[in-house]
Design brief:
This protein is mainly alpha-helical. It is built from five helices and two strands. Helices cover 60% and strands 6% of the residues. Strand 1 and strand 2 form a beta hairpin. Helix 1 packs across helix 3 and helix 2 crosses helix 3.
Length: 126
Amino acid sequence: MEVVLSNSSGTPIYEQIATQVRSQIVQGSLEPGEALPSIRNLATSLRISAITTKRAYAELEAQGLVETVPGKGCFVAGVDPELLREERLRSVEEALALAAARAREAGIGSDELHEMLDLVLEEGGR
């Protein structure tokens, strides 16, 4: 599991951790049943407070993405495929919303934006 923190980001550290772990679970990099680093080990490796790591894991557990087994640690939960699909759709929608906002700022119209998307999709399909 890889987590990279940014001190210059306006996003709280616990949220950065949760977002990155969530992304790895959704993408399949972290598989159901896989053990996550212990709260203390992750905190030590990231040089942050164990409380921050605990908060990130608690958020992931509340979302049903991880399970804590007392005395054993935190594990990736068996995630419902439909939940994964919804998470992926949400992620794509956010990226498209950002692209649309940037297109508006650049004065790019809907037709041109659609054309750009079609080109990107064609290139990705190769």
